[in-house]
Structure formats: C-alpha cells, structure tokens
Design brief:
The chain is an alpha/beta fold. It contains 14 helices and 13 strands. It folds into two domains: 2-167 and 347-359, Rossmann fold, CATH 3.40.50.2000; 179-342, Glycogen Phosphorylase B (Rossmann fold), CATH 3.40.50.2000. The longest helix is centred in the first third of the chain and has 16 residues, at 17-32. This is Glycosyltransferase family 4 protein.
Length: 360
Amino acid sequence: MIKIGVDGRLLQGKLTGVGKYVLNLLNYICDNTESIIFSIYTNKPLECSLRADKITVYQDNARMGKIKPMVWSKLLSFRLINQDKPDIFFAGDAFVPLFIKAQKIVSVVHDLNAIIAPETMSRLRLVTDKLFFEKDIKKASVIITNSYGTADKLKQYHHIDTTLVVHPIMDKPYKVIEDGLVQEKLKSLNINYPYLLTVSTQEPRKNMDKTIKAFINLKVREQLKPYKLLLVGSKGWKAEHIQSMIQSYPGEVMSLGYVSDELMPYLYNGAKLFVFPSSYEGFGMPAREAMLCGTNVVVTDIPELREATFEKGAYINPENSKEFEDCIVHVIESGNIINQNTLNNTDQLSLLIGTLESLG
C-alpha cells in the first residue's frame, strides 16, 4: 500500500478552483486503484466530503488553527507529515513544506500568475511564489500541470519540463439537464428572464468590466433587449470599479455573489451564452463547465481557454470592444447546439495512477 501525504490547506473552507482540482483528483485515484491511500494534513477543519475508507485527516492543535494556512503549511506542517511518514508528498499547488523527510514529491502547477498576473495576488502569496515556487517544483519527482498551456509557460519561464498534463476533473453534475428541470430550478431562484452568464472572481484580469460594458452597449442598441447579465463570483482585488458599474445598472446587471456547487449546473444550463474574457487563465474551469452543460461560450483567444473549451468556443480579443460585442450577437443568433459527443479530453489522466504507483 502506498501512502500519499497531501497539503490540506487547499481543501479548507469553500473550495476554490485549485481546491476542487485536488479533491476531484483524490476521488478519481480512490475510485480507480486499491493500492493508494491518502493522509491529509491541515491546521483547520475541512468542510469538504472525503472518502473515509481511503483518506485520513490529521488536524494540528487548536493553537495552530490561528496561523495563516500558507504560513502553517510552509513552516509548521512538517511535524505532522514527518510523524505520519508518507511514501510520497503531493504538493497540490506546487509548494512543498520546509523540513519534510519525504523523498518523493508530486507537484501540481496551475498557473504562472506571479509572472503573468502578479497584480491579482495577495502580498503573502506573491512573496511566497518569488521565494519558493521554482525551488519547490525542482524538488519534485513528478510535475503535473493542469493544461498544455501551463506546461508551455512553465517551460518558457522556468525551463522546467512537465511529466503529465491532467485537466481538472469536472464534477459529475456538470452536464446537460432536461430543460423542464432547469426552468423549475431557475423559477425557485426568481430567474424568469433570458440571461447571459459570467463566472469569476471580481478582479482586473477577469475583464468583468469589459463584459458589463459590452452587454450595456448591446442593450442600448436594443440587440439584447430582453436579456440580463448575471455575474457569479466573489469580490477580489481592486473590485471597487466593478461594484460601481454593477450599481449603475440595477435590474440589468445582477451580481449573485457566491453560488453553491449544487445550483451552478442549472445556471449554466439556463444561460443563453457564457462569457469569459479573462486575460489569463491556467485552465479556465468555468468555461469548460459551461460547455459540458451545453451552453455556448465566448472566451478570450488564448491557448488555455481554447484547451478548456475543446477548441469549440467563440474566441475574441476583449480589448477590441466591437469584435467582442459582434461575437456575442453572432453566437446568440446562430443558435448553435453543442454536440456533447465531440467534447473529448486530450490530457494524460489515464497515465496518472501508473505514474504514482511507480514512485511508491
């Protein structure tokens, strides 16, 4: 039996995209092999559902729970890890705790934000990246990236090769749902109008302001007369401008904030169009979720989002407002129906378990 230790910091609280990536990867491994078990180390309680038969959680004492998770993980988690003695340590976002004795490390790289979009990061995270990111990745026996685009940028900026590309494993509810069930769920949410949808944290690189501007321009020209724009996602860095724009268009632009995972598939299914003009993504999970729910997408023309949308989206330069607006209208009017049978993964997930077993 191979024991893999996991940084539980990523599984604390409401899961981010990185947290969902790690959780779904653990579940996939648990479902597909009997030779691997997991130990998760954390300084705070975990709210997510875990496979109790194959996953053991080790939580540090209450005093440690007051320490920032990143600080605890990097400087203090080694005590739990070394006491448990895992065969392999799984660094779910590339960072490896100091002083651990595990000789075999699997590292996951999700993006190169510290280089490409540093303005989106907290000061602590940016400093941590600058100090440890490259050093920690070079400790790894196996390096996983979430996209071929991330693999290319890891090679470009750090001259480090990727072992495996493993796309995010999507939650099973992200699928086409019968329209009657969708409308019933939307009605319970008081959504009884056609809408465009965007899902992202409110921060500069997501270009939510450009989405709002494009939508309002089209409304003024009466090209989207019956539609509203629904925004899902929490406030991020420098969100004041976005908040001001939302407040300027009450009844037209609706900010829903955080929406539960249970409701998101219905929102995707019910949307006439999903819009995601982010300037940079390591993958772009919301765009893939929308595609799997049968909703057409308009996204930025970058390699990572082409990959996330199976090369079957509509691609734009968000800096070109006319192109952006014209594309929205064209996709809505085209009435294109996505053939789910053509949405085939191109990653190397099938090689993952064998790779881990060879390390153990």
